[in-house]
Design a protein that fits this description.
The chain has helices at residues 13-24, 36-45, 62-72, 87-95, 108-138, 149-162, 178-187, 206-214, 231-234, 250-262, 288-293, 299-305, 319-337, 346-354, 360-374, 387-390, 403-417, 422-429, 433-442, and strands at residues 5-9, 29-33, 50-54, 77-82, 100-103, 168-171, 196-200, 239-243, 264-265, 274-275, 279-284, 308-311, 343-344, 379-380. The protein is α/β, with parallel strands linked by helices and 446 residues long. The strands form 4 sheets. A 5-stranded parallel beta sheet has the order 2-1-3-4-5, with helices on both faces. Helix 10 crosses helix 12, helix 17 (403-417) crosses helix 18 and helix 18 packs across helix 19 (433-442). The termini are far apart.
Length: 446
């Protein structure tokens, strides 16, 4: 079984052929080239994981070739072949990106373990690349669902700003998809191959948030037993997403403002500054303009953050997108649960459209996941929806003083659960079957 593709570049045909046979016996598919130019042509045509190249080639130096290969095919590993007297060339090649060097004449006990290690690293890099690619495909503008004009306008703005390094402020209610937009802006920009780090500013106390963002030195406070790298450092050359920025304390806002203006901060308990190059995307569901005017948020930080504002409309203003989003989540959760649900009933869809969706897309996602879990039929029915969505109007939701109405709706709920099986319903209600029939007649439930 072929376990990977290896390219050997060497102008010594006999040595090249011997290496090819040795490596081929280990199950690898081996390609051969007599010079650098032929090797680069093979790399262009074949999916090569490992290149083994002589340092002395007729048309190019192996060290220079290593640099070209790592630039053009960063996922491929390179091992250079050196003569006994030119081991320093191998060391130089490693500095230029080679995995390791191999001295000509080494026995198989050294060759095969080195090849296996290099291939293992190449395969790992390929897997990481594929995972990153999947994430990037998931969080891009093409995969953001919605045709409502206000939503399309938000996407258009985000696409434009993604090509810059400008600070972005995302505004909108909780659950409107601000983090998805932030990730898409990052993934479609020049920093897409660098880290994307997200932090919810409301999830930490003032002291903990400062430590999370900027890091600390050992002994800076009680419990700081070792040095900690902050999220700004982890996001170096990438993007940091500051969600719920409006929850940040005023004194911490001053430190953030300095980072935005200079790229410099000081870790908690440290005396020397740290320099970073980070793009900042912030988000909030609060009105920062009003809070800045009233002194609850720094006005200078607000102006610095809001260089480019994008407002995401709530779901209630995107009702035309509701069916599209519901179908997307239905398909998603059906695939995850292996259920055989194929659609939604008219009553189910109508109930979705009557609901105000105060939790926006996040609430819809949770409702659809719950409905798929509960579903027993091919179609999602109204019984799979939460009580407050099935009975939205005040007239249908009894007050706590209306005991008969509460009893009626509870019996109706249990009958829905048992799919009309009255014996089972009576058992769950802890009443006799005769009593249940009398209640059904009294409340006209049939």
């Amino acid at each position: 079984m072929v376990t990977g593709n290896i390219l050997i570049i060497d102008d010594e045909e006999k040595l090249r052929g011997l290496l090819a046979r040795i490596i081929g016996l280990e199950g690898y598919r081996v390609f051969e080239a007599g010079n650098g130019k032929a090797g680069l042509r093979l790399l262009e045509k074949e999916n090569i994981q490992l290149v083994i190249s002589d340092v002395k080639l007729p048309d190019i130096n192996g060290i220079e070739l290593t640099t070209q290969i790592k630039k053009l095919y960063p996922l491929a590993e390179v091992v250079v072949l050196t003569a006994y007297g030119t081991i320093t060339d191998g060391v130089t090649a490693i500095k230029n990106g080679a995995f390791d060097y191999l001295v000509k004449g080494d026995d198989n006990d050294k060759i095969i373990p080195l090849v296996n290690r290099a291939m293992e690293k190449a395969r790992l890099q390929q897997r990481v690349y594929q995972l990153e690619k999947q994430v990037n495909q998931k969080y891009n503008f093409q995969n953001i669902i919605g045709h409502a004009p206000a939503f399309q306008q938000a996407i258009a703005l985000a696409q434009k700003v993604s090509q810059t390094d400008t600070t972005v402020l995302l505004l909108g209610e909780t659950g409107t998809g601000k983090e998805v937009f932030a990730q898409a802006i990052h993934n479609e920009g020049a920093r897409k191959h660098k880290p994307f780090v997200a932090v919810n500013c409301s999830a930490f106390s003032r002291e903990l948030l400062e430590s999370e963002l900027f890091g600390h030195q050992a002994g800076a406070f009680t419990g700081a037993v070792k040095n900690k790298t902050g999220l700004f450092e982890e996001a170096h050359e990438g993007t940091i997403f500051l969600d719920e920025i409006g929850e940040m304390s005023l004194d911490l806002q001053a430190k953030l403002l300095r980072v935005l203006e200079t790229g410099i901060f000081t870790k908690v308990g440290d005396s020397k500054p740290t320099q970073v190059n980070v793009r900042v995307i912030a988000a909030t569901n609060r009105n920062l303009a009003q809070e800045s005017e009233s002194g609850q948020f720094r006005l200078d930080l607000f102006y610095r953050l809001s260089v480019f504002q994008i407002t995401l409309p709530p779901l209630r203003e995107r009702k035309k997108d509701l069916d599209l989003l519901a179908q997307y989540y239905l398909t998603h959760f059906v695939q995850k649960s292996n259920k055989k649900v194929t659609g939604m009933s008219k009553d189910f869809r109508d109930a979705l459209h009557q609901h105000p969706w105060k939790g926006n897309i996040r609430e819809l996602k949770n409702v659809m996941e719950r409905a798929v879990i509960l579903a027993d039929a091919l179609e999602l029915g109204i019984d799979e929806l939460p009580f407050e969505i099935r009975y939205p109007s005040a007239s249908q939701q009894p007050t706590s003083f209306d005991l008969a109405a509460v009893e009626k709706q509870h019996i109706q709920k249990v009958l829905h659960h048992t799919k009309g099986n009255k014996t089972e319903a009576a058992r769950l209600l802890h009443i006799g079957l005769t009593t249940l029939y009398r209640k059904i007649q009294e409340y006209q439930l049939e």
